[in-house]
Amino acid sequence: MEEAGTAAERSEIHAVIEAAFGGSDEADLVDQLRPSEYSILSLLAELDGRVIGHILFSRMWIDTSAGRVSAVALAPVAVRPDHQREGIGSLLIERGLDLMRARGEEIAIVVGHPEYYPRFGFSTEKARFLRSPFPGEAFMALELREGALQGIEGSVVYPPAFGI
Predict the structure, then answer these.
(1) CA dist., res. 16 & res. 79, Å (int)
(2) In the chain, at which residue ranges do the beta strands (DSSP E only) sit?
(3) Pairing relation of β-strands 2-3 and 39-47?
(4) Lowest CB count within 10 Å: 56, 76, 117, 153, which one?
(5) What are phi and psi of 32, to 5 degrees?
């Protein structure tokens, strides 16, 4: 697993995300976010010199009555379909969250499968006081520092590339 960066990798990353999601929306989002000031971390998983997985963390915020609070969006994580269910996505998420903690990030947000992301600590309960353009059980939060969401209530704000 390594941080993504070369021009050759961009094409491979796009193809992996497209294959994993069955369309180009998420891949196009990553193409817009990675070179922007909103991109925090882009990690990839390789096997035999080929990209088989990718994860992106980008800056987002929570607008509260006391001001804007920084958070990170985990969006998206993708693994080539022929390598799914091998633990690659889990490794990317765990490594990415560890690196976010090491950077001093305190809050992570994900919109994802409600039966998958809780194993990493994400929960709808932690997100209960956050208003999102993606409401419902797929909208979850994680405290990267214990207590980071205590007293935090407001609307989440995604980077412009999310189109919201």
Answers:
(1) 6
(2) 2-3, 39-47, 50-64, 67-79, 107-111, 130-131, 139-143, 154-157
(3) antiparallel
(4) 153
(5) -80, -40
In this structure, what CATH number is given to the domain that contains residue 54? 3.40.630.30
Tell me how many degrees the CA angle 35-103-72 measures, rounded to the nearest 5.
Answer: 55
Q: Is 91 buried (19+), middle (13-18) or exposed (0-12) by CB count in 10 A?
A: middle
Residues 63-110 pLDDT 10s: 999 999 999 999 999 999 999 999 999 999 999 999 999 999 999 999
Task: Report the C-alpha gap between 125 and 4 in whole angstroms.
Answer: 32
Q: How many domains in the chain?
A: 1
Cis omega (within 30 of 0) on the bond before 76?
Answer: yes
Query: Contacts from 7-16 at CB under 8 Å and sequence distance 24+?
Result: 9/44, 9/51, 10/34, 12/50, 12/51, 13/42, 13/44, 13/51, 13/54, 15/51, 16/51, 16/52, 16/53, 16/54, 16/78, 16/79, 16/80
Q: What is this structure's pTM? A: 0.91
